[in-house]
Amino acid sequence: MKIAVIGANGKAGKLIVKEAISRNLDVTAIVRGKNNSDAQKSILKDLFELKYEDLNDFDVIIDAFGAWTPDTLPQHSTSLKHLCDILSGKDNRLLVIGGAGSLYVDKEHSKMLMDTENFPDDFKPLASNMAKALDELRKRDDVNWTYISPAADFQADGKRTGDYILSGEEFSTNSKGESQISYADYAIAMVDEAIKGKNIKKRISVLSK
User: Fold this and answer.
1) Conformation bin of residue 89: beta by default, left when phi > 0, alpha when psi is -120 to 50
2) How many CB atoms lie within 10 A of CB 77?
3) Where would you tag: which of 46, 71, 81, 102 has the fewest CB atoms within 10 A of its CB?
4) Which residue ranges form the domains of the chain, and what is each CATH number?
5) DSSP per residue over 38-55, as a string?
6) What DSSP character marks residue 122?
7) Which residues, including other chains, have CB under 8 Å from residue 109's CB and lie 6 or more apart?
8) In this model, does residue 187 exceed pLDDT 90?
9) Is this structure's pTM higher than 0.85?
10) Domain NAD(P)-binding, which positions (predicted)?
11) Which runs of consecutive H residues, i.e. helices, occur in 24-178?
């Protein structure tokens, strides 16, 4: 299996690359500048300049792109649109690192976590832009996508426990009432999905046990 990781120099991207390599997968980093991940192969190219010819050899493309500043937040939508457009009608799968803010807090799926009163105001712009990107992704029947939301507490430096709980569209907690997962355990879930491909055209979520 050949996997490409877009944004492989980021914290999540690096751990996904590391996890995939540990499973003996053929991994290529797609980065704008120097490749600082463990991947031996790399494509030095901006996401927005990618063409299908750059991606056609990969079974799975993992989108670890991140945008955090107010002027770049809309790129969550524009970057996904670009990737979907070049993968339209193709067999390649697209796996996307999502956000927790768009997880539903009711069975009717009428209210998201980011709409609750305790959701931090500082994170609302990011959450709303990521939710918009997910809404647009749901309309793409022409792409084999999977959107994976982490738990609410997404811990960059958290420990790798080697385990996780796979959940669906609704916000959930573990037996301790916690909604958290480390980047390292999230990477396990991402690579598991890359290998198994059980949730095509679905949004799933993961959290620590």
Assistant:
1) left
2) 18
3) 71
4) 2-207 (3.40.50.720)
5) S-SEEEE--GGG--HHHH
6) G
7) 169, 170
8) yes
9) yes
10) 7-192
11) 52-55, 75-87, 124-138
